[in-house]
Amino acid sequence: MLFVIILLPLLLGIACFFLKNAFSKAHTALLLTVQTVIVALLAMAAFSGGAWSTAAIALTDSLTFALKLDGLGALFCLLASVCWLLTVPYCTVYLHHEENVPRFYGFFFLTEAMVLGTALAADLVTLYIFYEMTTLLSAPLVLHSQSKKALSGASKYLYYSIGGAFLVLFGMAALQHSCGTLTFTAGGVLRGELTAVLPAAVFCIVLGFGSKAGLYPLHNWLPSAHPVAPAPASALLSGIIAKVGVIGIIRTVYFLVGAEQIRGTWVQYAWLTLGMLTVFLGSFMGCTEKGLKKRLAYSSISQISYILLGIFVLTPAGLVGALLQLVFHAIAKVGMFLTAGSAIYLDDVTTMDRFRGLGRRMPVTIGCFALLSLSLVGIPPFGGFHSKWHLALAGLESLYGAVRYIMPAVLLLSALMTAGYLFPPVMQAFFSGEDAPKTERIREPLALIVPLVILSLAGLILGLFPDAVAAVMQSIVSAIY
Alpha-carbon distance 199 to 354, whole Å? Predict the structure, then answer.
């Protein structure tokens, strides 16, 4: 069944390359139907109350290719497939001004298959294969327009991601030697004292996977790739694809090495330092950037590093906060990149200074942008508040010395800066003054605004029931520990 879940988007992606009329009703119905089936299968698996596993395929005497669905995999796969489903109707309108649409759809669904495979991987070798294929198949989405800037953005994305993958490959060899296996086991498989090489190897693996997640100093591909990619690709690149690196880090730290083995070592404090530095730099650069999608790209650097900080605390409370942030950031950032795409598509709004009066012309789109901004900043009762609250408490309760206070302070400072670069455009959009230019309201197609409304309401509704959401995350974390 897990192979079927991966094969469905894989076969759909291959079929899309041969479709002649990408905007026909039959084509759209096919995409929505298959994607709905994928979501339904994953929902059945997630709520079946047990792990689904498949027989492993032996690559060598010691390396296997295997899939397994646990709580973490179910959470991420369901989140990814739902975001893909919401993006499909958006594409049917947005891509009307694009060329090579069948090619876009092809790589769009092939990437989904690789993302799902990464989350379902039962060992580090399988995860690494899917991780690399995610990079290679998502790069054409960035390159879609084939402009010079798109070529530069896609090249940076490839260089950073493949460079990070080489760091992972080095660490994999060291882990195989020390652990004797690369099969994921809740709590980790490493026992006894760390060897001299192993901490450096684990550090390299996390830094390598962190390149996909935008961890400093391997973060610079995001502000180059996001502005040139079509809005649906940017949305999934930030909300889901970048988190493939997060999944790799969680699997390595909590399912291979073991959090207890690393807690208190120089590796943990190096990770925390890089994480806090990335949170601050992403927020700071967001305040200085005027381009719409580029500002959101810097925001992604900062907000995804919130997830990494929760992981690096190396406690159950920190991991719960990280998983909450993973979900709420995906909801908010997919929605925000789609709103940015709508503003660009409908009114050619590419910079933040063009938001003046936009709330009158596109009230639903910009209203959703405002709601999603509240969640991203962390204003209660939106979901983003609860994830940041859990992360701050985890830092205060679990860390030692000055770091226990520095981490919550960095999170608070980042939230203030996030408000500083998201709220002023929203204010100008709805409260532009009497001298604002008088323009007619722009027609907002349903296919563009329905996904935005769903995502905006999801961030609010889930935030209104934080205990239920946190209970799900705690059950996943309890199975790990």
Answer: 49
pLDDT classification of 383: cutoffs 50, 70, 90: confident
Name the percent of the chain lying above pLDDT 90.
Answer: 39
pLDDT digits (tens, 9 = 90+) for 157-175: 989 988 888 899 888 888 8
* C-beta neighbour count of 68 within 10 angstroms: 18
What amino acid occupies position 418? T
pTM for this prediction: 0.91
Both tokens of 187, joined, read 């709590």
Which H, E and C letters describe 186-219, residue by residue? CCCCCCCCCCCCHHHHHHHHHHHHHHHHCCCCCC
The pLDDT tens digits of the residues spanning 336-381 come to 999 998 988 888 888 888 888 888 888 999 999 999 999 999 898 8
pLDDT tens digits along 20-57: 776 777 888 888 898 899 899 888 877 775 555 665 67
Mean predicted confidence (pLDDT) in 182-199? 76
